[in-house]
Amino acid sequence: MVADAGYGVSTPFRHGLEARGLSYVLALTGKEVAHELSIEPYQPDYGGLGPPTLARYRTAPRALSLHAAEAAAAGHFTEVAWRQGSKGR
Question: How many domains does the chain have?
Fold first, then answer.
């Protein structure tokens, strides 16, 4: 699945693709943030009053552009040429 940023920023859309086991590449607006894969949320103890507490992260999320830059520096991306275009390869 390939889609523009209108779909890329839609969390329910991405979750739907994942639930269906589909691979996807989606454009983003540049404002998105995320936690590293290794970071797990923790579940605070429930105090007994009101609704149960939600899981929380102990660290702030980082811009996806920073995650991508680190992955590129580590050699995790491969540049490919889609086709010969009007401006070259």
Answer: 1
